[in-house]
Design brief:
The complex is a heterotrimer of chains A (291), B (414) and C (332). Chain A is globular and about 60 Å long. Chain A has one domain: ABC transporter involved in vitamin B12 uptake, BtuC, CATH 1.10.3470. Chain A is mainly alpha-helical and 291 residues long. Helices cover 72% and strands 2% of the residues of chain A. By secondary structure, chain B is α/β, with parallel strands linked by helices. Chain B has 2 domains: 202 residues, 3-Layer(aba) Sandwich (Rossmann fold); 157 residues, Rossmann fold (3-Layer(aba) Sandwich). Chain B contains 14 helices and 15 strands. In chain B, a hairpin with a 6-residue loop joins β11 and β12. Chain B is globular and about 65 Å long. Chain C is mainly α. The two termini of chain C are 16 Å apart. In chain C, 57% of the residues are buried. The chains are: A mainly alpha (291), B alpha/beta (414), C mainly alpha (332). At the A-B interface, α1, β2, α9 and α10 of A face α3, β7, α8, α9 and α10 of B.
């Protein structure tokens, strides 16, 4: 086992982590701000991939798909919040969870009806196809691009939350919605926006994943499980937690793939169970009694 | 009247009934045997929902075609044949329940179907205990072994042992360096076993094997190690979406530059789902490809009948299983003069049939269908003459018992 | 809550004049459920479906003990269902044990697993509890996938068909769907009677107190952790019993039994019928399975209907079918 292979394996793990982060971010933001566990997150990831595919086939360009699909699905997410989730805020935390569970079923089947159950090909854009020589080994250019996009999104998100007035409101709203209401902030609008943002992020993840994977109605189911693992390990609602846990899980999976490949999936759940038992609120989560 | 899900355009009267809260749909199955004692009823569980819905749809279309062709020629001993399609949801428990219903309520005379090893073994367990004939059309080595053997079960599909032997014969050479990426479950292990056996016989060399978790969406973390093995041949032994994802990602990592990608079964629908570029040059086995019509008359007849029924579409590999499975069963019923189980089993054991792909017959000990195995190569985009022009037929391994494990190896008394 | 009744049914019915029917139903809930179960195979489209309703109804009742009455949303109950089924199948198929021993083993094994997972998970609260149970049950799933020499892995466990059983000296043809239904119904009836007794006991009052307000329950002197663990274990035991029944019914144990989709389905059934009511979960299982059975005969897109119905229930009928019917009666 040479050093080059281990370095390459580490890098693959980080790249895989970038994809995991993309999916977990939205889940974590929505839980952190709204207290909603979105079980339809994986389905919306898949809807994002199909939307990107559809826009790309209409315009003939991957780039339009990458730009328009997340915005459109983000807007769709806002509609979901407004019509379905909003009536449940006064109820138990279980209710939005159960509703989105049902919504996941509906979305998957709706896509089957519209696009069929067969997968649909999504070619890697010509500009980004091929492999790059990293010195330690070869890596697909497209995956490097995805890592870049995820890094850019993280920076933008950080700037938005830390440096803008809206970001301040969002952060404060997550801490104490009641005070915000007293201060005259329309918290409903903030939540609407946050939900849309979270869904837009997962849709972006879907479009980014489409050229690497088979675009099919079931592609969201596994993603949902992975996103949960990452979010729970990082601490539900913590953005920095999602980033650290995404990288941690990516590297753990990659290293397992090197030494005990058949355990590569089980290691995620083992890691999650371990973290939960030692530190139930996750690595970066705030300890909250109930919610 | 029996309700059937496969009718894509319900008649107006049925639709009206459905509007009335579907009450009569429940009512129809209530009246046991209302379908009349004189029809021959074939139960057909298949995963109409889930990741193999496209394959299942092809299976249903082709099975319906077989029933129609037999009925047009007078049915079985003057009795009309009826196909009872049920959704098994690719879930073994669901499949067992549907099979129990088909046997207990619908009084099915035989069952044909299944599209996964687990579902097939579940249906086999239910039919074996109740002495009902089952024609299995899903690939597996397990069903051939004596532990799961049922006197009433016939295995129409290929098994991994056959496909790997045929594919290896036309791709492995003396001194070839072969790396394996294998799904970590029974079917994956069976394919690996088949390949390694062929590899030893052909004098090729294994440079390493990686077991990946069943159903994994991302294979990037396996690629550096596979590349470090420096293989001439990369054998990817998995199925369905796993196959599609792993081939696509192997190509993304440039694995196909120095190595040839080889799979045990090249799937028509997965090739359509991923597109020609990732699959170009991939070699794999198959039970059927419509291009056989150039050399085999029965394939031409099957394709033409299918085209006529489905607006020019061609049948796929798994569709052909639905056709040959139902057709061989009905031929045996015709020979037996009815549905008497022992007579039909005896007739199936004696049957020589050629309905879509050349000569076939069931081996006596394990009831495996001895049939040809095609070795296909996926075409480049530039070489395709149409949307359905997917593969070159590299070779056709003729039906022969030498391609199967021997009866004693499977545990049957000599 | 109307589910608590006094030990004397007739007096309870008399005392609760305004909602007389509801009180009567509550008092006579076990005999009434058993009567309904006796009729079930003759009103449903098939006997196999009736057995499934029996099995999933029982799981939902067991799950409801934890979710509806104790207020803990577990996403891992597939583990206990599957453990019961696998233990039964392995006991018969690999050790050749008689079926009733296998059933007992299945229940014990599933119960033991529930103690372990319960011990690990009840320390966490709210959504974290759901996540821990989900993660631990997924570990059980992967363990069963890997241990294929015991479980048959992805192919599922098979080779333990019980064709004939001897019940108190009487030979019963277990392949006969009607006979099979009524034998399994005896187990379900016993379990229902047990659950009813539990709910009427001081323990039943304790778990509801925890659901309503954990802090207050603690202040009242309840040992919250022990009560939760006991509730978790009892709930797991009943799911394990349902698992052993499923193994006997289908004569296979599919790996999917352990998947979190099964856990999700259990939650959906319980909620559809009405969490926190005695009849609710059974009604939910019946409605869910009947809906799936009928709609999947009509269209392969049955999931869109099931999902929509579920959304509508969460939005407009959060008490479920039975809970809504009860409050509608009581409200008149």
């Amino acid at each position: 086992m040479d050093a080059e292979l281990i370095a390459m394996q580490l890098f693959s793990g980080v790249a895989l982590g970038a994809i995991l982060i993309m999916v977990a971010l939205g889940l974590s933001i929505i839980f952190g701000m709204l207290g909603v566990v979105n079980f339809a997150h994986g389905a919306l990831f898949m809807v994002g991939a199909y939307a990107g595919l559809w826009v790309a086939s209409l315009t003939g360009s991957f780039w339009w798909g990458l730009l328009i699909a997340p915005l459109a699905i983000g807007a769709f997410g806002m509609a979901i919040e407004f019509l379905l989730i909003r009536p449940l805020y006064k109820r138990s935390v279980d209710d939005p969870l159960l509703l989105t569970f049902g919504l996941g079923y509906v979305l998957v089947e709706a896509v089957r009806i519209v696009f069929g159950s067969d997968g649909i090909p999504f070619e890697t854009p010509a500009l980004l196809s091929g492999v790059a020589d990293l010195g330690i080994g070869f890596f697909p250019v497209y995956r490097l691009f995805v890592v870049g996009v995820v890094a850019a999104v993280l920076v933008l998100l950080w700037l938005f939350l830390e440096k803008t007035k809206y970001g301040l409101i969002v952060r404060a709203g997550a801490r104490d919605p009641l005070i915000m209401r007293v201060l005259g902030v329309d918290i409903g609008r903030v939540w609407l926006m946050v939900f849309g943002l979270g869904i837009g992020l997962t849709a972006l993840g879907g479009v980014l994943a489409a050229p690497m994977r088979n675009v099919s109605p079931e592609m969201g189911a596994l993603v949902l499980a992975e996103a949960f693992v990452v979010t729970v390990i990082g601490g539900m609602g913590s953005l920095i937690g999602a980033v650290v846990a995404g990288l941690l899980v990516g590297v753990a999976v990659s290293m397992t793939a090197l030494f005990a490949p058949e355990m590569a999936t089980i290691v995620m759940f083992a890691l999650m169970a371990l973290v939960l038992l030692v530190r139930p609120q996750g690595l970066f989560g705030r300890a909250v009694a109930g919610h | 009247m029996t309700t059937m899900i496969n009718s894509r355009f319900p008649s107006p009267s049925r639709r009206t009934v459905l509007m009335a809260a579907g009450a009569s749909l429940v009512a129809a199955p209530w009246v046991a045997n209302a379908q009349g004692a004189d029809t021959v009823r074939i139960g057909f569980p298949t995963p109409l929902t889930g990741p193999f819905a496209a394959e299942a749809r092809d299976q249903v279309r082709s099975a319906e075609l077989a029933v129609k062709l037999i009925n047009d020629k007078g049915g079985v001993a003057g009795r009309k044949v009826e196909l009872l399609v049920r959704d098994d949801k690719l879930n073994a428990g669901e499949a067992a329940t549907r099979t129990l219903e088909l046997i207990e309520k619908d009084k099915a005379h035989a069952i044909v179907g299944a599209l996964s090893s687990a579902v097939q073994l579940a249906v086999n367990e239910v039919t074996r205990a109740r002495g009902v004939i089952y024609v299995s059309i899903s690939q597996s080595d397990t069903i051939n072994e004596v532990k799961d053997f049922s006197r009433f079960t016939f295995h129409e599909a290929l098994n991994p042992h056959m496909t790997t032997a045929a594919v290896a014969k036309h791709t492995f050479k003396r001194g070839s360096k072969v790396a394996y990426l294998v799904a970590d479950y029974a079917y994956g292990h069976e394919m690996l076993r088949g390949f390694k056996r062929a590899q030893a016989a052909l004098g090729a060399e294994s440079v390493g094997e990686i077991l990946h978790p069943f159903g994994a969406p991302d294979y990037s973390t396996f690629m550096p190690r596979l590349r470090a093995m420096r293989p001439d041949i990369l054998c990817i032994a998995n199925f369905g979406r796993d196959q599609a994802n792993s081939i696509k990602q192997a190509v993304d990592f440039g694995m196909n530059r120095n190595a040839r990608i080889v799979v045990p079964v090249l799937l028509h629908n997965q090739r359509l789902a991923i597109g020609p570029d990732a699959f170009a040059g991939v070699v794999g086995g198959a039970n059927y490809y419509w291009g056989l019509e150039q050399s085999i008359p029965s394939a031409k007849a099957f394709n033409d009948a299918f085209r006529a029924a489905h607006g020019g579409a061609v049948p796929t590999d798994y569709g052909a299983y639905g056709f040959t499975g139902v057709y061989s069963l009905l031929l045996a019923m015709q020979a037996a003069g009815g549905t008497d189980t022992d007579k039909v089993v005896a007739a199936l054991e004696e049957l020589k049939y050629d309905v879509a792909k050349g000569a076939q017959s069931y081996r006596k000990c394990d009831h495996q269908s001895m049939q040809s195995v095609l070795v296909l190569e996926s075409k480049k985009r530039a070489d395709m003459k149409g949307d359905a022009d997917l593969f070159n037929v590299l070779a056709t391994e003729p039906a022969s018992e030498t391609m199967l494990r021997t009866c004693s190896e499977l545990g049957f008394p000599a | 809550m109307t589910s608590q009744s006094s030990p004397l049914p007739v007096m309870a019915a008399a005392a609760a004049r305004p909602a007389g029917l509801v009180a009567t139903l509550t008092a006579w809930r076990v005999p009434l459920t058993i009567l309904a179960l006796c009729l079930l195979p003759w009103v449903l489209p098939s006997k196999a479906l009736a057995v499934n309703v029996l099995i999933y109804g029982l799981i939902a009742v067991g799950y409801n003990l934890l979710f509806g009455y104790t207020g803990l949303l577990s996403f891992g109950h597939a583990a206990f269902f599957g453990a019961g089924a696998y233990a039964t199948g392995i006991a018969i198929g690999q050790f050749g044990l008689p079926w009733f021993v296998a059933v007992a083993l299945g229940v014990v094994f599933g119960g033991a697993l529930a103690v372990v997972i319960g011990l690990l998970s009840i320390r966490t609260r709210g959504i974290y509890f759901s996540m821990v149970t989900l993660a631990l049950s997924q570990l059980v799933y992967y363990a069963a996938l890997q241990a294929s020499s015991w479980t048959g892995g992805e192919n599922g466990l098979r080779g333990f068909t019980v064709a004939k059983i001897s019940l108190f000296g009487v030979a019963v043809d277990f392949l006969n769907p009607v006979a099979k239904y009524y034998v399994l119904m005896i187990f379900a009836a016993l379990a229902l009677w047990l659950v009813s007794r539990i709910l009427n006991s001081p323990f039943g009052a304790a778990i509801e107190a925890i659901r309503e307000n954990e802090t207050r329950a603690r202040a009242c002197g309840y040992d919250v952790e022990r009560t939760k663990l006991l509730s978790f274990t009892l709930s797991g035991l009943i799911c394990a019993l349902a698992g052993t029944m499923s193994a006997l019914h289908l004569a296979i144990v599919p790996l999917d039994t352990l998947h979190y989709h099964t856990s999700g389905m259990i939650v959906m059934m319980t909620l559809l019928g009405g969490a926190g009511s005695f009849f609710g979960p059974f009604v939910g299982a019946l409605a869910f399975l009947l809906m799936e059975d009928v709609i999947s005969l009509w269209t392969s897109h049955w999931q869109i209907v099931v999902g929509s119905v579920f959304i509508l229930f969460v939005l407009f009928l959060p008490k479920g079918i039975w809970g809504t019917a009860l409050s509608w009666r009581a409200g008149r």
